[in-house]
Amino acid sequence: MNQPNPAPVAAEAVARLDALAIRFGEAREEISRSIIGQPEIIEQVIVTILAGGHALLVGLPGLAKTRLVKTVGTVLGLGTSRVQFTPDLVPSDILGAEVLETGKDGSRAFRFVKGPIFAQLLMADEINRASPRTQSALLEAMQERQVTAAGEARMLPAPFHVLATQNPIEQDGTYPLPEAQLDRFLMQVNVDFPSEADERDMLLMTTGAEDAAPKPVLRAEELMEAQTLLTHMPLSEDVLDAILTTVRGLRPAAGNDVPLSWGPGPRAGQALILAARARAFLHGRSAPLLEDVHALLAPVLRHRMALDYAARADGRTIEAVIADAAARL
Length: 329
Description:
Largest sheet: 5 strands, parallel
Distance between the termini: 49 Å
Radius of gyration: 21 Å
Shape: globular
Helix content: 40-55%
InterPro entries: ATPase_AAA-3, CbbQ/NirQ/NorQ/GpvN, ChlI/MoxR_AAA_lid
Structural class: alpha/beta
Low-confidence stretches: none
Number of helices: 14
Order of helices and strands: HHEHEHEEEHHEEEHEHHHEHHEHH
Protein name: MoxR family ATPase
Mean pLDDT: 88
Strand content: 15-25%
Strand order of the largest sheet: 2-5-8-1-9
């Protein structure tokens, strides 16, 4: 009978986390060489992956969302595949399908051909241009790290992460993502225009004779090791209470005066804990602080809530509701 591996000694685990933090700092710098002027966006994407989750990048076309995902995959050493979502895309285009093959002896048999979802990092480009039926093909994969195709459950590679890009839903030809799928994204990362100085540097870098390609810095095994060690990072009662109070306080229920049709569920609290640990790790700390929770409230919560009719009529925004909650931390 195989015995489980002993848990790492605390001192050894801390030393290994410190070494990995240096490696992730190098990875962050390498990503910043290709993605200019978006340090918070880069941090949020790395935090999402370190926390073992998936991210939804929302922004207008041309803001380097696809470039960011490609760069992250290269730098973190992850096998990456890309799916361009279009209205005619069907679930089998993502998951794979069985094909009938004829052998040399004339025998015929079905063989499953894996789809692009069988990758360590799936780039779902313009995910909201596909129909809700196709968008929902990702649900099981994002939650269970497996897909059911051709009547059989098939495990996905480890690690497995989805970085999806989305155009604002006000654009023509887009479909809103189902709430159940939105909740599977650990963060919604809003990508905005760069500053004038950053845009100047970006224009010079990307239109010259050379546009240096990003280099691999980490291996998938190092990412998985960091993810495992982070689950053992201690969490103070103050931070836990702040997360619990904030999440529960944003639900439209008795005693909560919030202008929402629905609020974040328990998965939001889980996401905040995991993400806060990852952010603390990136900032060289051995435990998350309230400032980590404060910095992550908007990207973790903004896609898990909806304004009620009166709030929409008054011109209120989800960001303002979250800002009010952050001010109470």
